[in-house]
# Entry
Amino acid sequence: MKLLVVDDDADLRALIAFALRQAGFLVVEAADGQAALEVFEREEPALLILDVNLPRLDGFEVCRRLRAVSKVPILFLTVRGSEEDLVQGLDLGADDFLTKPFSPRTLLARVRALLRRAGFVGESRPAAGDFSLDPDSQSVALKGGSALRLTRLEYRLLQFLLAHAGRPLPPERLLSHVWGYRGRGDRQLLKQLVHRLRQKLEADPARPRYLLTVPGVGYQLEASGGGDAALSGED
# Structure
């Protein structure tokens, strides 16, 4: 399930994203109101975590524009505590407020409650093409075959690639998702992780059909196999 986190405080945004990824969510980020609208349109998240005080467009304006086109749950983050702000946000269509500072446990509880209210009764199994992921057992099944157990990092990498199947992703985005906030990942570790994942997914890891290298760009998952001949398994 994909969530959008919008906050101009890079450290706080990274901490929130890390907590959500640890809980198994896919996370995309934006640092200002205008970027939030652009990312929302491109990524179609299931829930929005939105700071009130943002550059370019503030959170209230972002909420107003989104409510004109979407009913996606919106959780406001604010350092303000006035009744006027609460009333304005709720009148614009916000679903909940969380005042800074807050604990990751409280944030996750609010997020899960909003998703349940929106009809997401538990996390579905991500699936596309030949792939079906099981977050509970941290495994993947190909074409309905036997489940393959993955390590925590392998699962995170495959989860993110599957959410963007058919699109090349640069190493920086993969590193951010897999290793999270101030993680220890680097390109060499990512290369090793891709290699290990290919050993589990591919009939011939030297000639991959699913997890492909896009020269000069990054990596791409072809969920139904049969990758483009212009792509390769070479890193």
Remarks:
- DSSP finds eight helices and eleven strands in the chain.
